[in-house]
Amino acid sequence: MATEEHDRERRQVFGDDAEQYDTARPGYPDRLVEDVLDFAALPAGVPAVEVGAGTGKATLAFAARGTPVTCVEPDARMARVLRSRCTGLPHVAVEVADFETWRPDRPYGLLYCAQAWHWVDPAVRWARARAVLRPGGAVALFWNHWDLEDLRLAERLTAVHARYGLAVPPYTILDPRPRPAGRGPRARQWREMEADGGFAGMEHRLYESAHERSPSGLIELLASFSGYRALPAAPRDRLFRDVARAVEQDGGSAGVRVTSSLFLARSRA
């Protein structure tokens, strides 16, 4: 129970500064969005549901292609930004609710979730996914994983953390573990969809991209991770100050490599 409460608190920290999160986080590759829609093959007028829509980093990409989307977002602060981003898009509906208890009024042809499925209660998430999908409906789960291109800079920034007695938060840009850690049938998401989810036709696809971050831009990205948001303000600010200084001394920018990991499956009829 303590772990569940901690996870719930971590999930809610993103809304503390929803605008900052929206500015800091990159979107998703166009090819990924197109592949999801090709896989789902939604008949005309059949809607998609987005779980944990946040501020709409994925929502706008699907909506721009004409897909009717119902966004389920548990944090009212994030949903407020999401609604502002979707102004003028009548085919996008936003509902403030936990997916675990949300009750849809129609079946959906596609359930997709960007960067948030791990926050949904594992005890019920697959049963809830089956309940909202029409027979043969598609599931698309995807995450962005970040790495610094310069390993030497990564070592320097890790040393900055150590100087303040802070561990690098897991699943962040400096986490040394390979991401995505599992691929294809070895991945946890694949195994869950097959065993717990009752889904079939699983696929796993990866997309690579890269961009440059200024010192302030890198700090904005770090600040968007729950592990950093959960730190007390004073040590976090000191850490970020020294991280920015290290990037400035290293040439003034940091190359960031992004691996977008997509899992696809179809509900059994």
Automatic annotation (TrEMBL):
<dbReference type="GO" id="GO:0008168">
    <property type="term" value="F:methyltransferase activity"/>
</dbReference>
<keyword id="KW-0808">Transferase</keyword>
<dbReference type="InterPro" id="IPR041698">
    <property type="entry name" value="Methyltransf_25"/>
</dbReference>
<dbReference type="Pfam" id="PF13649">
    <property type="entry name" value="Methyltransf_25"/>
</dbReference>
<dbReference type="InterPro" id="IPR051052">
    <property type="entry name" value="Diverse_substrate_MTase"/>
</dbReference>
<protein>
    <submittedName>
        <fullName>Class I SAM-dependent methyltransferase</fullName>
    </submittedName>
</protein>
<feature type="region of interest" description="Disordered">
    <location>
        <begin position="1"/>
        <end position="25"/>
    </location>
</feature>
<keyword id="KW-0949">S-adenosyl-L-methionine</keyword>
<keyword id="KW-0489">Methyltransferase</keyword>
<dbReference type="InterPro" id="IPR029063">
    <property type="entry name" value="SAM-dependent_MTases_sf"/>
</dbReference>
<dbReference type="GO" id="GO:0032259">
    <property type="term" value="P:methylation"/>
</dbReference>
<feature type="compositionally biased region" description="Basic and acidic residues">
    <location>
        <begin position="1"/>
        <end position="14"/>
    </location>
</feature>
<feature type="domain" description="Ribosomal RNA adenine methylase transferase N-terminal">
    <location>
        <begin position="32"/>
        <end position="178"/>
    </location>
</feature>
<dbReference type="InterPro" id="IPR020598">
    <property type="entry name" value="rRNA_Ade_methylase_Trfase_N"/>
</dbReference>
